[in-house]
Design brief:
Blueprint (H helix, E strand, L loop, with lengths): L6 E2 L3 E3 L5 E3 L6 E2 L3 E5 L3 H13 L7 E3 L2 E6 L2 E6 L15 E4 L3 H13 L3 E2 L5 E5 L2 E9 L5 E7 L4
Helix pairs in contact: 1-2
Length: 157
């Protein structure tokens, strides 16, 4: 079953610190209809994202003139040549996060991204722990410099 794109929690629980935290990221409801980022090379972007998102079970993108659409039942991720004709630039401080079903899926996502021309960034893939519990994160930048993340929430008994 494909991992959810753009899915966010509907339920919350109280952590030991009293902070309300999501318990089911990527499982229940969608907050966004779509996310669109820019590219300067549509063919290269399609090759990159077809391979990268394929590791999460997302079908290959559909090209519609100057855009590529990756659709799932939880939302749409798209890549577009800028309509205004200016070069695409990445968001400084922005990250696009994709839900991974397991640590292995996040690792495959990361390895595929690097093999397709992405660049690793942040710390190496691994477990991080914070107020929201344990999560497994893998970060990279796409060929246009957009910062991406695969996230797997580790469920503890």
């Amino acid at each position: 079953m494909p991992a959810a794109l753009l899915a966010f929690p509907a339920q919350k629980s109280q952590s030991r610190s009293g902070i309300s935290r999501p318990v089911n990221i990527g499982r229940s409801c969608s907050v966004f209809s779509h996310v669109m980022i820019g590219t300067n090379d549509l063919e290269k972007a399609k090759s990159f994202y077809d391979a990268l998102l394929g590791t999460l079970g997302v079908p290959p993108g559909r090209v519609d003139r100057h855009r590529i659409f990756y659709r799932t039942k939880t939302g749409t991720f798209s890549v577009s040549l800028p309509i205004d004709g200016n070069p695409a630039t990445h968001a400084n401080g922005g990250t696009i996060g994709f839900a991974a079903a397991s640590q292995a899926e996040a690792d495959a996502w990361h390895a595929t991204g690097i093999a397709q021309g992405g660049k690793t960034c942040e710390e190496p893939p691994g477990v991080r722990e914070g107020a929201a519990g344990k999560i497994y994160l893998a970060y990279l930048r796409d060929p246009d410099g957009n910062k991406l993340c695969a996230l797997h929430r580790i469920v503890t008994p």
